[in-house]
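Researcher: Quick sanity check before group meeting.
Model: Go ahead. Protein one:
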Amino acid sequence: MCGIVGVIGKHQAAPILVDGLRRLEYRGYDSAGIATVDDGANAGRLDRRRSLGKLVNLADLLVHEPLTGTSGIGHTRWATHGAATTVNAHPHARGRVAVVHNGIIENYRKLREELATHQVVPETQTDTETVAMLCNWFLDQGHTPEDAAKATIAKLEGAYALAFLFEGETDLMIAARKGSPLAIGWGEGEMFIGSDALALASMTADVTYLEEGDIAVLTRAGATFYDESGDTVARERTTIEIDVHSVDKGGYKHFMAKEIAEQPRVLAAAADYYLGGREDDDRAGRALLESIDFTNVDRLVMVACGTASLACHTAKYWFEQIARLPVEIDIASEYRYREPPLSDRTIALFVSQSGETADTLAALRYCAGKAQSIVSVVNVATSSIARESNVALPILAGAEIGVASTKAFTCQLTVLAAMAITAARQRGHLDEAGETALQEHLMAVPRLVGQALHCENSIKEIATHLGHVDDALFLGRGAMFPLALEGALKLKEISYIHAEGYASGELKHGPIALVDDKLPVVVLAPSDAMFDKSISNMQEVMARGGKIIMISDAAGLAEGGGDAWHTIEMPDIDGPFAPIVYAVPVQLLAYHTAVEKGTDVDQPRNLAKSVTVE
């Protein structure tokens, strides 16, 4: 992984490929490269250029060592097998074939052993090179390019999105998908490939998403699709609606800053979609929620990774307290391996920003046919997870470019909150008045998030100090506990400061051993039923010299913030949805600390936006 783009077109491919890869930079990567087949003076010649680091390095290389040709493939790599080096960068080429790949080839060692018996040996550390080696070997045995690619794909085990380019073939490209997403774009006398519709947005709005096991054979005249059995099939063409301006920073220094600031608007759109609308045409979101039957359910299983998992942990409080529905939460990468039993009275809920998270998708497939219903909460309505769900709930966050999730997290929380309200009413735990009251609380959240953004100046001041620490603790009680985990995750993701989140009551069961006069401790403590207990935990920290950063409303700060090292004031919030608002200060704290340290905020080291490998 991480990004694939391909073109068989009318114009020089190299600048088109680089532009497509630039739109995929948000995924995170450590190297980049392109390959083209020349249809000019060196007709049929297959050549490539690769570079380590950011895409600008590849662009500079192409100025000095240009590639010509109107067909080509490109890739941004996030290292899995083999270090981040130019040699290990994609595209991989052997003989007459070049390949780009997202995913993992699980049997690559076995395939290498087989190829070694034919004196075919690797030159890199990657699993992907094995695909090129094998395909070129089939070409050497007399196979046509199409047959060689199909024979190669038939021997692969694991997950992959693949694109093949062949020497001497100026009007042929082959794509395949199993486990990792891949889209085919349609043009007038030209065709495109992208691992993400966003990569194709500037080229075409007409897209076909490959199904699991599909192979596509592309020429400038169009595409032929083959299913897993090798039969020719028709695949639907859809129109994508992506605002290409969403990949612009809009005057902000970083995408993350822009996306934090966008939260009042996108949260309002999500809340209105699921709770607003007085006309029938405006009730699509409500209809989606009502299509989930909570009345005959005794358990909700929630599965996700990373920040999406923390959204589930927050929503667990709402489903259990409001809807009285027991909730079980699993990390997607572990879920199916413990082989949990599922009954037909269980709803399985999967949360993923991209809708392509490999572990989450695999967990969904484990639950299919076992649970009563498969429900997903996603940001990409055309994603694999959405398409394989019985009900897919869009979060309507718009394109999120920063690797560290911000607006997608709070939109996920908003959708999950609306879902919990619906479940409570269906299950008889809310009357009409109670439902209306909670809906009004949730509809007020975007305005409160807007107010919470006013704390930014005080957070900038705190960040000047946090930028020089090595460790930090985040504490919260009740539904603020998952927010403490999220705050710690954000800080370590983009500032590289070691941070941990704990339930405040667990402080004395181990973490308090870390407290000294150098340790900042962020406490999320709104004036709620748990406030007095949070204050007691703060006192335990301050008694040992810990440096408290207290996040609370005006009443909470007046009562408990006098001895804090720093305070961050939040608006007064009625109802149970304060965690959505309190996400803002922990996002800003991480952001401004990263800026203070000078790290790469939008593309932090070692991280990828869309994790399509297990």
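Researcher: Fine. The other one?
Model: Protein two, sequence then structure:
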Amino acid sequence: MSGGGRHRRRIRIAVPVAAAGLAAVVAGALLMSSANAAPGPATLSLPTVNLAKATPSRAALEKRVAGAVAGDDTAGRTAPKVSLSASTTPAHVDPKIIGGQTTAITTAPWMAQLWYYDEAKDIGFFCGGSVVSPTKILTAAHCTKDENGKTYDWAANGAVVTNTAQLPTTDSAGNTDLHNGTVSGVSRQWTHPSYSPSTINNDIAVITLATPVTVKPIRMTTSGDTASYAAGTKATLYGWGRTTSTTQDISETLKTATLPINSDSTCNTAMRSVLGGVDAFVEGHMICAGDPASGTDARTTSACNGDSGGPLIVNGRIVGVVSWGVENCVKKGAYSVFSKVSAYVGAAWPRVEDTNFSGDHKADLWVRNASTRTGYEKTSNGTSFAARVSQGNWDGVNVVLQTDLDRDGIQDLVVRDSATGDVYWVHILASTGRSATDKLFTNWKTRARIIAPGDLTGDGLPDILSVDSAGVMWEYPGKGNGTFSARVQVGTGWNQYNSVRGHGDFTGDGKADLIARSKTGSYVYLYKGTGKTGSGAFSTRVKVRTWAGYNAFDAVGDVTGDGKADFLARTPGGTLYLYPGTGKATTEIFATRISVGTDFKQYDIFG
């Protein structure tokens, strides 16, 4: 790549303490009582969320950006000027694109700039990322934790810029120009629990924005994808990293390059040789791409400092996340190394679908008292639920489902009117923080089942399923705004079940699944999602349990916070059991059950 970068100098800019994140505000607002709400789904509402207090002001975020622009630290390392020896540890970088070309943001609208500035600790650095949902950014774990395993606090110190190919610039007066980009605050972050700073293994993370962005997201590849990793497959790299190995200049504009995927054996052998015998490449967790570096910028196309966390794309899906490489990126024989997304989509995708009431990474529970018709939210503590909090009068409905149809990171509810059968979407408007109720479907009175499983089609947007009185299942592909494409028939025979539930991924492959129990024999079946539409939406069912002792079920997502979807089952006596998911598509799909309460007989609706 040619020049066009800038030298990054350290300056001191005071940054005010960040306001409480969106998660905390949502937790407080949604837990407020709405007891004065009139009954009937058309008038139900969620308490107002004060989004203005949920994120720092634009000015505060721009100051963070300015501080990070002037910083000279490297993500994952707080002492960037210390040279890492290949003989002691793999010398990872915030890689760059050397040998690429300039591109417009329209070619990669999902590209994100991650700016981190902690004035108190004198840390400022930049990473890349990908918008995989309106509030979710996929990036590298070394962008969220330092070399000692300490977490960078993105909510307090971070800012994310989207919708621009230009990096921000600052003038002599300290004013920041985002070049028509959108700056967003961060509400929370997730780092792969097995990330190792010393080996740069399991280098994957997800950052949650405080408010949604409008750019088009890109999907991660699936766990079963092998074709994208075949040696010789052409992949596309994007980033703003260094443009030469001889200076610290990074690109002011978005760059791209095409790199061939290499086999694991090629990567392993080459990187061991380049690093002086150090086994740094982990087959199955990492991939490498490109031609061997030449030793100079000439004839080298590589990622480098500033590209960390950015995507490697094959056929419109992320197959790799820029992870590490050698110092200055062009050492002869070296390759750019990426986290292998197919190995991590099962862990990362639940973090994309982790919307809940309390705003953490654990799915909460919504229930309704059968006699008083009061709705309650119960926040997950991991393996138990906190004391219930009233959400007011929820009379006049016979279905309540927890979901996030618009992927704004705020819990929604889908409800059905008992009298008319009309189905409504109760949600928070991100623009105002106020509740809105929209009609989704008319006269679904005879629908035996309504299910909100998440994303079935692989487009990153939640869908709806229903089973009609004849036992036919219909799929309604979501558009991300409370509207749906024309329904598609999934299959028949679904009236043989007395429960069909699903929310999220039970098998760890990044695709939404269903759990169904038969009326005869109480057999429990797994319907594994395929990511396809219509009759091919699910694989052949797999019998995973026999559950005769339960009369109510619920699937709200990942209750424990471990990245695997869980299941809830209630006995006739009122004991509710949590079945932690294992990610296995076998009879071992759930771990040993855990009692989470004995007073659940009083509830007639589970969300």
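Researcher: One line on it for the slide.
Model: The first helix runs from residue 22 to 30.
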